[in-house]
Amino acid sequence: MSASRRFLRDNGLTLAFGIGFLLCLLGQAIAGHAELNSILEAQSLHPLSFADYLFTSDFMVDVTENWQSEFLQFSLYIIGTVWLVQRGSPESKPLDKAGTETDEEQRVGAHTRADSPRWAASGGLRRALYSRSLGLVMSLIFLLSWLAQSVTGTVAFNEEQLRQLQEPVSWTTYVASAEFWNRTLQNWQSELLAVTAMVILSVYLRQRGSPESKPVGAAHAATGVES
Predict the structure, then answer these.
(1) Are residues 192 and 108 in the same domain?
(2) Which has the closest alpha carbon to 58: 204, 144, 163?
(3) Which residues lie below 8 Å from residue 181, measured CB to CB, with a gap of 6+?
(4) Which of 31, 38, 142, 208 has its CA at 20 to 30 Å from residue 202's CA atom?
(5) Alpha-helical segments (H) within 54-123
(6) Structural contact between residues 223 and 85, judged by C-beta atoms closer than 8 angstroms
(7) What are 145-180's pLDDT values in tens digits?
């Protein structure tokens, strides 16, 4: 197998979803550009070019609004599944594994192997950070996306206020507004619903060959078992 084919095979999941993300983002930009220009024309204002639209608060607030809700979902899921379990779900750890587990189970410190990451063998702050790095980074991306959403949302809201000859508002006023929390909670509730459905439906339903599913013949009560 050639190096290029091996690379495509070894990274197929990331490449497929990454390309899908870029195509959806482009589609969103095209549709959003058309929608905004129809609004501007209805208000007798000059339409924007596609390049200009990409740097508008209207586009950025829609993008960051979705990003923050997605990263919130995964942050909560990654951290929550350390302690919380669901009997019968492959999305859960075995019932007796709740918690951070022992050093031996986690292969850290004296229990590392030849192929273990170097920071797993270290001690103190480096190991503590690395042991929680996935949850920390996902949570940081969520917070930055949420901040970006709040800033771009403020700008977009104020642009609409000015079009209607109304006074703009401050960032703090916007973040405390029903407009902001309506948009935010719409996304949060849908993400949490999707996780809840995945956790409980995977107890009883199967998808042959998927690592997110138990083997087809596994018992409903089997917990933390994946194909």
Answers:
(1) yes
(2) 163
(3) none
(4) 142
(5) 57-83, 103-106, 118-121
(6) yes
(7) 999 999 999 999 998 888 888 999 999 999 999 989
Query: Whole-angstrom Cα distance, residue 193 to residue 73?
Result: 10
Gap between the Cα atoms of 129 and 69, Å rounded: 24
Number of independent structural domains in the chain: 2
**124 and 109 belong to one structural domain:** yes
Backbone dihedral angles phi then psi of residue 61, each to the nearest 5 degrees: -65, -35
Distance (Å, whole) CA 187 – CA 190: 5
51 and 94 part of one domain: no
**Domain check: are 51 and 65 in the same one?**
no
pLDDT at 73: 93
| Residue, of 30 and 1, whose pLDDT is higher | 30
Domain that residue 79 falls in: 57-227
Q: Which residue in 167, 166, 149 sits closest to 58, CA to CA?
A: 149
76 & 93 share domain: yes
pTM: predicted TM-score of the whole model, two decimal places: 0.86
